[in-house]
Write a structure and sequence with these properties.
The chain is 29% helix and 21% strand. By secondary structure, it is an alpha+beta fold.
Amino acid sequence: MKNDEFHATFTLRQHTPMIHFQADQPGALLRASELKPAFDNYLWRNVFKIGANTERNKIIFEENKAYLAGYSQNRDKDVWQEFEQQNWALDYRVRIDYDLDKVKPTSIPPKFPCFFGDMGDQQPSITRKFTQIDGDFTVTFACFHSELVEVIRRYFADFLRTKNFGLRQSKGFGCFTAQISNRSVVPLQAHNAYFFRVDGLRTNDLFKHIELFWRVLRAGYNRPDGQGRTVIYVKCPLFFYLRDQWHIDVAATKAPEEFKARMIGKSVQWDKRSIKQAYFSTELARQQSKPSHLDILEGYSTQSDNDRYFLFRDLLGLSSESQWKSYSATIKKVHRPQKGQETIDRFKSPVTFKPIQNGNGYDVYVCIRPIPPEFGNQAFSIQRGKENRLTLETPPPGSFKITDYFEYVRKEIADKIVDADRQVVTLNDERDPDWLKIVAIFESFRKI
């Protein structure tokens, strides 16, 4: 194990299985080819502070260009052009050492929480399995720039605190941490992070907790008993946040003037209702006729001008296709790019789960980052089969802050869920396993 002026070695521990597309190859685990580009990107953005300002970026480039792989003074101009295209490879090597016999690939059980089984249908020749190592292993960085070695030594453990590897990494798969002996390492508290506790060490149970938490926060949780009766219904906190807290200053928003003009007098409506207005109007009318303490339409305008409403839920991760099981329907969202703009097919969730084994259970850290501004002011066609009746737009950049939403959940909603408050929850079986998990999650939910 090397730790000197030109080497930095870390001992890593794997906490959750990694979903690997080459699981049948010997030693399929964390690879340098995945780790290094992600760490390079992290260092440029979070340590060297690369951003959107080109002039500022050029200063940063001049200060740190000697650290770039392949840099030489006679290629200065070419290197800058490559750098502008985000060719940010830093001049160090990574070696990952582990015992191949200790890497255990296992088949992914059907309907495993947080894993979409139909992912493999798109590429049937690829076998995806869980891979996990029994015991710790080491990662060694070798670099001729002693200053860069010190940067690596200080920030690598922090990088692992918010980064997972492999497929479905935002949901907590492929979670690794580095053992820390250096007190100068940046602490997790520097991030926007929340926490909940999962007791027990069963992997399936851990990811079921994560799945339930995210379903509640993104869209709510509704489970009937197969005969149309509700077992558990938890109203999505985003609904209450938009109703009670969200507003937009049209004049201050950074949006094209024609977009601002359309926003004048724009209403806030739960996008699920907009979809029902367009495609399930009969069911919507039936729901309107029923008195309920959980009236999903309460407090909203009856206006049906869809051009005046926003698309909210997909700010938490674009779901291009969703199943509306109660209606035996599939709803698709298709981006309508503006002139000169690339089509958005996927939008990564701004939330990453980091499950860390601690004693006889897991501490699940929920790390959040700002929603990228380029996802604002985007129009999506909402389609059902060949029908195309609805277009919704995402709010302007910066108008929806995910940090505010999480704080609202922590302060205003978590206790109401735990107490089964009738404004938020409909419950007909207090012993239901999913309900007990939801209660445990929000009882322990707190900000770091």
